[in-house]
């Protein structure tokens, strides 16, 4: 089901990454798409972005890690039981993932679902 929402642009983006970063990015992409059927994937600002009623989250790759970022991460900090959200910007926060073992599927899914809910309530 998530496969139908994948875009060729993001497929190509992931394919061009170094192997270890490619694996982390693909795992996070799958997790994001499985978190909510409402999320729409697009390549924006040279990275995968996911939106629903506005921007929700993104994947930013670097040489040795991948950031799972949240556009309204400041509003998610109180439910961040593991204190993984980083950043000091006005609203954006991210979780730095250095290897696949750093991915906490249940926790990340709950953050993504909460981020989707924030956008849902904003437009009511």
UniProtKB/TrEMBL annotation:
Residues 25-116 form the YdhG-like domain. InterPro entries: YdhG-like. SUPFAM superfamilies: YdhG-like. It comes from the Bacteria. Pfam families: DUF1801 (PF08818). This is DUF1801 domain-containing protein. It comes from Oceanobacillus longus.
